[in-house]
Amino acid sequence: MKTQAHPLSGLDPLLSIEDLAEYLGVPVTTIYDWRVDGKGPCGVRVGRHVKFTQSDVLAWIEAQREVRPGGNPDGR
Fold this sequence. Notes:
alpha+beta; three-stranded antiparallel sheet; 3 strands
């Protein structure tokens, strides 16, 4: 029996601006402001829409991690 892989299974999931705002717990306007200011995760333009790859969002979140005084940047 042959199992066929879903043709899109290797693609990185995309989030809309609304999805990203909900995930981060911030207003949609904050995401737009971050884009104007060059902050926030890197976006991908799909026609007239802006999407965010899940991997870019996770990398951006990791880069936002604060360094504790006397601690390591990785939180250990």
